[in-house]
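yo

u said u wanted the structure for the complex thing, so here. seqs first:
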Amino acid sequence: MSFVLNADARALILAAQRGDSAAQTALFDAHKQRVARQIMRMTGDASCVDDLVQEVFIAAFSRLATFRGDAQIETWLYTITANKVRNYWDARRRRDAREQGAQLGADKAELSPEESLEAQERQRQFYRALGQLPDKFREAFTARALQPMSLEDASAVLGVPISTVSYRTRRAEEMLCRALGLEEES
Amino acid sequence: MTDHRPEQPSLVRPAFGVDPDEPAVHHPQLRAWVELAAAEPVPRVTVDVAAVRRAWQRRRATDRRRAVLVMVAMLVLAVGWSWGWPRIAARNPPVALQGGVAMRVDADVAPRARYTPPAVADAPSHATLRRSDDLVEGLAAGVSVRTEQVEAVEVLDDDTIAVGAGVFHIDVAAGAAPLRVQVDTRVLRLEPGTEVALTVPDSGEPIVTRRSGRATWERSPARSRGARSEASAAALARRADEQMKAGQRAAAIETLERLVEGHPRSAAARTGLLDLARLRRQVGQADGARCAYAAYLRRWPSSTLRVEIQRELDRLGPGRACRGIQPASP
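structre next:
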């Protein structure tokens, strides 16, 4: 993943900051699918993607005036998205507790083959365990394992040193293995 | 994302001891789970920028209205306070606090009551005991187990749990059956009407702080039915995976049966039960498959997979009655 803020991008952001709707549309179109991908990988919940994409861009448009251009727009959007996903996990954990373990995830109306049942069940368990991790560990693990980013790229978007990314990813892996009942590798 | 302080020794680039090419996931089984999640297709974004902009403008208007309301409310409060307080103060004599209770000061009359703080109990307060993070599900009525700083809780049976390192707040109601708590090779028996805090360190002896009732250590492990078998749930799940990969269906079925019967509430049993149903069906054991699916619905009735599982059951059609996960003898 490389982030290049070229002259066109800079001009686009400046125009969007001035409230130019065409520039805002261009920014939205350029980044919506990347944001959707990040949300999907961080939540595993396809049903929430549209809502969260909308939330991310509402926040982005609201704060566009404060974007100084010293970070890449992708990094800036990544941070906004990560914050929205944190809110999502907070709400989902509360809802889980309220519903006493009611299961989450998109219900699929179509008939699935048996293997698909297991895949869905595994994915549901995986994301449930992921949702229980502390935010920082979950974000590091998601960036490294699910997106997937190099240590250096993850360090850039998370705003922490490479060693911290590495440490958080390993800790997240340990916690996930425990939560999923996977034995430690000897 | 705002706290940039590393939890580990702060290493700025170049990061010593960090291999830049290190894999994101080391554990092979977890890697398989991650690959499954990462392969999930990303849906197309259907929301358009016009909708986003409309929502943004609505929110800005709401925020402005809210700000105005807050300012008006503060203004009203300030005016009301400045107007009303002198009158309230004139109507009521000054009060003083003594021992945490507001008392009216009257120069002519000695105070008739004096606040007595409650006696300090030996055990920590109830509120302290209730400060907990997670409620364990799947226990009999009247038994509650709350956990904090917990690594592992396994519900072996309605009235038997196994715990790893962590802190547990356990309450067995007066009318409930006794609860057995397996800690390594020892078993703590909690009688009805008992409330304890159990701290299990990573190494060393567990500590039991009894709030009420009776708690006794037993020497032997939990009774054989439902007790932790020689192989852990994770080990059985892994063995079953390997057997399935090797095409050893009969062996895998046997291992999965041990998994779901020996560790019925473990996370591994949940997927194991589905694996078991699928394998039984593949080898022509329709009754066995139906019993496994039915057991899954009984154990996890609110699963999002219930519709699909019900369809599988419908597809299998009627058959022999079930005893647990096994078909009943004809």
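Chain A has eight helices and no strands. Chain A touches chain B through 86 residues (CB under 8 Å).
cya
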